[in-house]
Inverse folding.
């Protein structure tokens, strides 16, 4: 059985076991959301809602998000979060760039759950293993989801699925970005490429032999250790 069949079957099972009807997916215009939307469509047919949620977003993001929607022919809504974000920034005390930027994925999480609750759907997250392992996601933002269909797949495997689903090359080859601020890219913020990150994770898991730059390995180990709290439920005093 192909991996895409296994994951789509898992999505269908998880939705059924939760007593829900479908899934809602945030469509960002990037490769991860395109693959998750494709898997959801394969699993659930018409019971998929794609949400496009611009928030001071790059026009290219909107263009690519619309391509995904058009190719998959899934139900969709566009909710512009820019005015809400602006009101929050004006209302809250002045914060640093990261504090302000993290409001965006958290607003998207609120929106996804509004639609999910209204439709009796689950929220399907778009995080991949490469990002989750090193904590490259916003807690209670893009990390606030019900299921993670590609959460156990490294970036390279996500690219392979994208090619299987005929995701347009312009989306596959776009520099990955969380869209936190203008010009932001994942690899620049992480300080290493996804290829090197994936290689370090495989090395640490004992799945790849051979040499790897010690400073990269040390950096990835540090990122994994420092982000443990993001991958765990809140600690409870006993």
């Amino acid at each position: 059985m192909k991996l895409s069949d296994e994951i789509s079957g898992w999505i269908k099972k998880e939705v059924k076991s939760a007593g829900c009807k479908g899934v809602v997916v945030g469509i960002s215009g990037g490769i991860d959301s395109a693959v998750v939307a494709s898997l959801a469509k394969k699993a659930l047919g018409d019971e998929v809602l794609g949400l496009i949620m611009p928030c001071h977003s790059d026009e290219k993001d909107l263009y690519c998000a619309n391509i995904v929607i058009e190719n998959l022919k899934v139900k969709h809504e566009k909710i512009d979060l820019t005015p809400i974000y602006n009101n929050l920034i004006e209302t809250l005390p002045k914060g640093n760039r990261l504090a302000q930027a993290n409001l965006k994925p958290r607003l998207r999480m609120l929106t996804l759950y509004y639609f999910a609750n209204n439709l009796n759907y689950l929220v399907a997250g778009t995080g991949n293993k490469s990002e989750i392992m090193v904590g490259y996601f916003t807690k209670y933002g893009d990390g606030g989801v019900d299921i993670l269909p590609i959460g156990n797949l490294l970036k390279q495997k996500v690219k392979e699925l994208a090619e299987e689903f005929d995701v347009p090359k312009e989306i596959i080859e776009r520099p990955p970005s969380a869209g936190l601020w203008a010009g932001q890219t994942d690899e620049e913020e992480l300080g290493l490429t996804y290829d090197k990150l994936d290689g370090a994770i495989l090395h640490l898991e004992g799945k790849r032999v051979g040499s790897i730059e010690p400073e990269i390995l040390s950096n990835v180990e540090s990122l994994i250790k420092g982000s443990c709290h993001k991958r765990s439920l809140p600690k409870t005093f006993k």
